[in-house]
Amino acid sequence: MSSNFAGRHVRTQTSSIIATTVFFLVVALVLTGLMAHVVATMTRSANEIDDARAIRASRAAIAAFVSRLSATTTDNAVWDDAYKAIASPAAADWAYENWGKTSEDYPLYDGAIVTGPDRSSIVSAYAKGKPFQPSAFFGEAFYRQINTATDFGQAPVVNFIKTETGIALIASQPIQPYQAEGELPTKLSVLSFYKEFNSDVLSTLSNEHELEGLRLAAAPEPGLLNTPITDMKGGVIGQLVWPSKAPGSAVFRQVYPFVAAAIIILVLFLAGVLLVGAAEARRLRQLAQAAIFEANHDSLSGLLNRHGLLALLEDLEGSELSPPRLYLVDLDGFKAVNDAWGHAVGDELIRIVSNALIACHPEVVAVARLGGDEFALVQVGTAERQEIEDTILALFAEPFKIDGRTIEVGASIGAAARDADIEPLELLRRADMALYRAKENGRGRAIEYDPELDRERQRVAELETLLKNAIGNGAIEAVFQPLVSATTGVVTGLEALARWRTATGNISPEIFIPLAERCGLIDALGGHMLKTSIEHAKNWPGLALSVNVSPVQLCNPEFAAEVISLLQDLDFDPRRLTLEITEGVLMTNPDQARRSIDHLKQVGIKFALDDFGCGYASIGALRQFGFDRMKIDRSLVSALDQASNGADVLKATISLATALQIPVTAEGIENIRQATILREAGCDQLQGYLLGKPMSALDISSKLQQQAA
User: What is the pTM of this model?
Assistant: First the structure.
């Protein structure tokens, strides 16, 4: 099966090499086309950029034309002598001498018109030095123009206007003194200058703004650039038109011979590539099989790798054989082999296991190595799953012999059957989920995929989301269980416990706290519980507060600084706070735990070792960490009622703590007999349902009031 599979892929790879050569030629042709497109685009872009510049220049030319006439009008209208003369009986003569006669050959304006304060009487009107009728030359637009120029200090009103002979620019401004002295008339005479938009003006604008061929047209003309000329109402009364310089096209005409030569060279190059590619294809065909093998096989074991396995499963999808079943096998204890004997022995073990798996059953058609110590077996046939699993597990029943060493490893198995419509990756995922569950259940187990595994994962994911929201909105509450003096029975402290109440019921801390550790929410949960507990404890002065801390929190390098900052923000005495940790933190990351504990103890925070007596902490570790208190695990307390030697074990445990000069708290006390034995054994603090169940902050306050009374 594997040989046929590889053979088909060799032929496919050989065809791919030939296709690659052809593809290269196609790519080269495409690149040629792209280069031609780039040249055309650059040519067009250069033309467009210059056209945009020319349009901006045309607008600037119009603006300059308007600005010159406006400045000329202001220079003549804001003039003390003009203001006095126009108000005198000799106004017409004065206007003619200063403006009308000048219009005959003055380059800045072609005509000058003075209208009286009533806006309808013409005091003086000369065009090119000769009298004329403004209403006939300009039409009604003239009176709309001068009616907008009324106020003292107003800037000239400048507009293009349609005339008998074409288009003119007219500027109007009240005739006024440079500075007002006394009260001015409510209406002033208006001076209007106009300049015809003739060929001389166009020639000047063309030279000034590099607009060759600039002329005036009634409408846009095809193939020419244009800028509209609008009157005071915004209506278009003409167009400035001029030809584009098209610099891009001019440059292209200069470089065209070189572009053509480059294309010819490229064609010759492509022909050479085709010849060389054909020769290379013949050589690569001989190497294809080796390359395919390396791409689809593991170099150490010679088995298929992940890529090869997925390709095989894909290949089996179209066959007439029965649907395959996939088994994932993970070696139990392989890391210990590497650690104890070195990687050379570990590699040899991998090779031995690989050979054993290949020959384990006739229906196992392929074996793959997916990772360091993870294998995959593909079964095609009618054998029962149990038969295959028993055969695999039997391979590990006896130790392996390597260079005189006896090496014992086990195996966990996850199996999944391929349905008609699932992809190879999905089959691999299902087998991986089954393997994960098998490893959770213990060594040497075999589990087949069941949809319930997915549903359980979905439930965990949903619970993670709910937990994150619950931490954020404060839905996880703090309750408090009294810590009672063994001698006086007085409440001396409180332990804060997390409770999560939902609409569907309460969720146990044994569920959501490990979940928070797995999904990275334990820091947020721990911070929330610590803050909430301290806020309540501030209402109970004199009582110590105990808060549980996860090993994950304590191993966070920022944990100590965050706790100290919180205590400062809430103004809480650190000496009232005891952090309870389990023995797990002494095993996982003792160095970081020690740094965090030392930092917090410096400010007065105490530490208690929780659940003592059920773990593996050594006496040396207990002395090294300097715990301020030990809490006897509830299993030792409950053993008082179950085992004959329970009291002796408990007393020995308490004696150990006493010898280390560490005070002892016993938790889980449910009856008076247990409390009596513990008190006599040396416990100075008791905790349990007999002395008080976990209560809300309100109930704790009531209990403390009753105790005080």
Answer: 0.53
